[in-house]
Write a sequence for this structure.
């Protein structure tokens, strides 16, 4: 009889293994790539005041894998107040983002603008949502007002959800705009999720940020009711691939006006290089050095680098390692810091308000007063922005200084006092 089973030879095994691995990888990818409803539930205030312009809400765990959050910022409220960032009246979707607006009266356009940034769970680090789409549902109107929705997203495509739409859609670059053409609402106080004639869909391959504008055009005075909008978003997350390098330790120590950075790592087979990044405020980092892995990548390798910080005006310097894979993926180490203060700066100056907008008030210690004391305003690179003299106190104009982190450095002979400040616009 004919052989119905494959004969496994030594030469055939590698090919079968490769096919099996390929099929497994395709299975994993296809599973991850299936778009799912993004669940906008139970928002918390990240910053600002609830229901006010400038407020940022966090919606946690949008996806079933629990890897993505959304930060929703209320950019502006034009002719409306925000009644609820995510209302769910009877019959409405429990996963869609459903802002509810209240008209403040008057003719013309009334709307809210929201910027949605997708981030890694529990952080503010942007991350893409793959196969993203948003269906704008329940667009209708009345003899007093007509609803509209728009979205701005990278390289969008759009489509009607019905062959007999009751919305008119147009596109201008990255903005897609839909306006109701029906003046007979079918959803009552909620959203009719079964009426596809009042919907349109917008898609984008892998955005990290989208901007939504929801609102209505008011034709007649006297209407000041609440209006509900439904943004039903879908997308998927791809599981992060763990980098080959395994960090065993990372330290930063100050000695002889240098910061000694040391670390150990193993499993560096797929590692391209290390970036040493430095910051003076633990927010804005710059590259201080770039190092390549050792030739022997299978064992434990030790690395060191000394960062000369002579004449630095910073009080604290932060360091982190950026480990970059050969295909461009990367991850960060734990952040380490060193303090540059010593006994000579024990006499502290006072600088207020901090943060500052217009005028910074500076006062010096009692035992420094009525002496020749010089002061400088420095940026984070140690460059001098302003110079001033002070006997007891001084007022430094800051309105012409760009926003950012700075340092007030005051010198009394051999004694030095440094105070970090933040300038805001």
């Amino acid at each position: 009889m004919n052989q119905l089973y494959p004969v496994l030879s030594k030469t055939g095994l590698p090919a079968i293994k490769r096919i099996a691995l390929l099929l497994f990888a395709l299975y994993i990818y296809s599973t991850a790539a299936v778009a799912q409803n993004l669940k906008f539930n139970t928002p918390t205030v990240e910053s600002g005041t609830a229901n006010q312009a400038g407020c940022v809400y966090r919606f946690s765990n949008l996806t079933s894998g629990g890897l993505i959050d959304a930060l929703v910022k209320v950019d502006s409220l034009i002719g409306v107040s925000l009644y609820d960032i995510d209302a769910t009246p009877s019959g409405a979707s429990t996963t869609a983002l459903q802002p509810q607006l209240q008209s403040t009266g008057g003719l013309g356009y009334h709307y809210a603008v929201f910027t949605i940034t997708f981030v890694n769970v529990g952080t503010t680090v942007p991350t893409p949502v793959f196969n993203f789409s948003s269906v704008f549902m329940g667009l209708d109107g009345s003899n007093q007002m007509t609803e509209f929705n728009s979205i701005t997203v990278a390289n969008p495509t759009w489509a009607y959800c019905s062959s007999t739409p009751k919305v008119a859609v147009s596109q201008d670059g990255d903005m897609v705009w839909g306006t109701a053409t029906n003046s007979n609402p079918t959803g009552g106080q909620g959203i009719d999720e079964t009426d596809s004639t009042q919907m349109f869909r917008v898609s984008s391959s892998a955005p990290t940020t989208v901007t939504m504008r929801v609102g209505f055009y008011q034709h007649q005075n006297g209407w000041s009711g609440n209006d509900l909008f439904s943004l039903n978003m879908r997308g998927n997350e791809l599981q992060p691939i763990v980098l080959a390098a395994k960090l065993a330790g990372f330290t930063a120590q100050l000695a002889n006006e240098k910061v000694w950075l040391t670390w150990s790592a193993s499993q560096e087979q797929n590692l391209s290089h290390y970036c040493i990044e430095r910051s003076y405020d633990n927010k804005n980092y710059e590259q201080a050095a770039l190092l390549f892995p050792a030739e022997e990548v299978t064992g434990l390798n030790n690395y060191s680098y000394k960062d000369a910080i002579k004449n630095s005006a910073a009080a604290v310097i932060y360091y982190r390692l950026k480990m970059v894979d050969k295909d461009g993926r990367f991850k960060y180490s734990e952040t380490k810091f060193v303090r540059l203060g010593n006994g000579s700066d024990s006499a502290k100056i006072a600088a207020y308000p901090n943060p500052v907008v217009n005028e910074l008030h500076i006062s010096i210690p009692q035992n420094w007063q009525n002496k020749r004391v010089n002061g400088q305003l420095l940026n984070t690179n140690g460059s001098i922005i302003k110079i001033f003299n002070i006997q007891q106190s001084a007022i430094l104009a800051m309105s012409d200084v760009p926003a950012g982190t700075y340092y007030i450095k005051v010198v009394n002979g051999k004694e030095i006092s440094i105070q970090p400040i933040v300038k805001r616009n």
Q: What stands out?
A: The longest helix spans residues 12-33.
